[in-house]
Amino acid sequence: MADRTIIHDDIKLYTTAEKFYMVPNINPSEVLVIDRSTGEASVKSYDSVKIPIPESAYKPVCGFLGSIKLISGLYLVIVKYRILVGRLNGHDIYELAGADIIPYARSTTHLNSKQIEDNNTYERLVRYALETPGLYFSYGHDMTHTLQRLHSVSPDFHKMSLATRADPRFLWNGHLLKDFSHEQFQNFTLPLIQGFVSINNVTVNGHQLTWALVSRRSVQRAGTRFFMRGVDTQGDVANFVETEQIIERGGEKSSFVQTRGSIPLYWTQYPNLKYKPAMELAHEDHVAAYTKHLMDQQQRYGNQVLVNLIDQCGKEEALERGYRAAVAAAALPGVRYEPFDFHAECRSMRYHRLNVLIDRISHEQTEFGYFLSRGGTVLLRQSGVFRTNCIDCLDRTNVVQSLLARLQLNAALQLLAISSAGDVHPHLDSLFNNVWADHADMISTQYSGTGALKTDYTRTGKRTYRGVIQDGINSLTRYYKNNFSDGFRQDSIDLFLGKYVVADGEDSTARCPLRQAKDWKYIAFPSVLLVAMSMFCASATLPQKYTSEVLMYLMFWGAAVGATLTFIMKHGTEFVDWPRLEAGGLAVARAQPSL
To answer: Could you give the 3-state DSSP secondary structure of residue 69?
Structure first.
């Protein structure tokens, strides 16, 4: 069923001292008017509004994303630039290529110097969130729902605004649009998702079709790799992603849905400068949290196969045993646990061993099926999903999801009489592999800060030594970002999603959480380490010959480097870039002693 609500795609933004006016560029019949002093907004007929500045004095914008409150007041959030990704379900899909935030306040004279400084930091946080790659929107297609969900609702659902009927799990600018939920704003409020979208027009055996991959990241328990793990009391898990593979040919539409998400137990893995921080299971009711999560998943998606790819020995063993125990204790009908020790099975590049896993779950893939409609008539429905996870739900997860998606693609092409069993399609194969690798990189960048690992296998079907080297580079980059820059990134997510809301009078009547003094060790010991390393290198390279005095210098500065590094690693959590807004309970974790 086609969506009926169309959002204005090109808008003229007029800014006066008193108000913002947003006028559709094509056939204007209504105007969104926002009072800069009171924040009141209303939609008025075009003929009733007189804009007190020249008609040419406007800023072209591509959409209205809502507003957000910072220290100086409200800010308008608008789309400046967009990139066309492709056409899906009869509508153009765009990637956000540039956004802007515009203050309602005309100046900052009402703020003191501390407030101005902190307001500038909040601005940087919002801009950082808007600059994150993988933000998508459409003026006519509901990006937050799968094709099957869109065919399972009443006709009245499609008369609602795209923002109102959006799945709140995937509405990335839901907090920004909270004051614009009234029906009068429906043609202006533009829903935004974060994830990955690739839309491709391909020819297979003379048949023209569209093959697309759409992933939606959940706003619940959203965050960065080490600061968001596991489940919360609401049953929401970190890094939850719904991935839909879509095939369109004329009036025929097919989709196949998979999910991924952090292991649904209470567990943490906070950064502490170690390459792999210890994973800790909390002393909580894991079975209750697991049950709440899985019951919600079953209600939304049907039966579940829980594909767990983590190691079954070593540091990850406790998590695997805890997950297995929770599944057994809950004993939910329609849920099956399928552990597969990815690293052990595929060690030494034996990636053909993944066929063992695929064989184990192939009968359920046939049983679950996929969605298929023809001319608006539903012929098939998907009755269950594979919920795949590893530790990060990134690299190993993406490899397995791509294999399951490939099997469904082959089955759908055969059912639609586009292809026969055993047919080879080099162009489609190459496209499929590269899109799934790009998908892995995007989801990984959004969660961990770098591209995915093991994408050489996804792209080429085999593991390469060049890919191993690239994985090493990505791993080192992840290490740096997860320890020294993810606090800022977590704050940007929490502020943008409304997990933290700026309080009235911050740095005036209330203390701004951005102003957290660093312990003296945070500056002192890295400085000592830098000096010691510099002196050690100078002592090792500058002398023309090595005397006992030079050796004494080398020993002294080497000992200084070793002692300083030992102290820093022992107190690692004190040198990590922690979130300052402390949403999601991180204040408690931060107060814990170093491990």
So the answer is: strand
